[in-house]
Amino acid sequence: AILDAVLSVANLYSKVKTIPYFVNESWTVGKSELFVRYPKTPRGIILAAVGNRGGLNVYQQEWDFPQRSLQADDTVAVMYIGPDGKALCDSNVVSDLPATRAVSFNGNVANGICGTSYSSPRVGWLLAFAASLRPSVNSVNWANDFQAYISDLRSNGSDLRKYILNIEKYVESLEATMH
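The structure assignment produced for this chain is given below.
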């Protein structure tokens, strides 16, 4: 019920203010353990931290929030992958599927304190700032268009490195939007 309320309030606020929401889901929930009523017309993005259980494939585990990133434009799975393409801080990973909506970002805090629950809100902040410079969320295709933007920000590569959010591309996109 709490998750339903958070998403409902975020969606209503977003509709009234014509700005997108970014909701962080930083916990692991098994398939069908919770019944969450997602908005029929989402006006924002859910950031689903994939968890830190030793590199498990979250799609094979069928955990609700990251699993949704395969099915809905309003969800992005967030990992913590290093420059060598290996999961850091025991980050779980996503499968390389055509529908994968995922990114990776630094989840390190300090002295071995790290995790995807630190990565996910950082990605949310970056995306919220970028969205604040973009057109209104009233577009029917907003979430789909924003997913294309997120995909453009990812790094190149043939392994998990391709999901790393490329900060240089991010800054370039901001500069292009502001001019």
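Interim note for the steering committee: DSSP finds six helices and six strands in the chain. The helical segments are 2-17, 58-61, 64-68, 116-132, 142-153, 167-178.
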